[in-house]
Amino acid sequence: MNTDNIFHTPGAPVGDFAFDASVAEVFDDMLQRSVPFYIEQQRMIVEIASTFWLPGTHVFDLGCSTATTLIQLAQALERSARLVGYDNSKPMLSKAARTVAERDLSDRIELRHADLNGDPVEIALVDARTRSARSSHENKKPETGKR
Fold this sequence. Notes:
Blueprint: H1 21-34, H2 38-52, E1 58-62, H3 68-76, E2 82-87, H4 90-102, E3 109-113, H5 120-137
Helix pairs in contact: 2-3
């Protein structure tokens, strides 16, 4: 993981923050250092998904950045789990694609570029799949004691 030194240069002009290539390369370090309990949050997401995921359903990560969560989910869930990540930053998706390929997970993780704030086709697709998955879960309860 590359170390974030983006704002360490004294006197350097500071512009607007952007999810560009320089940020994408150090984003994982940024998160681990700046988001309280980030690693614990990741662990909890995997635990929850492992409890509630059903074979034949998709897992969507909206704002997947460098695919950290998707990679951990791919490692925890059965091989049949289909994982789809959306992000509006092409540099983040480029970094994500490299990392997914390095981990040999390209066949399980699909990455899509979309602005979910303004792309009605992508929003409708995610909404339809989410509703379908939600309705299939409504009458099912997770097994007790499953970890």
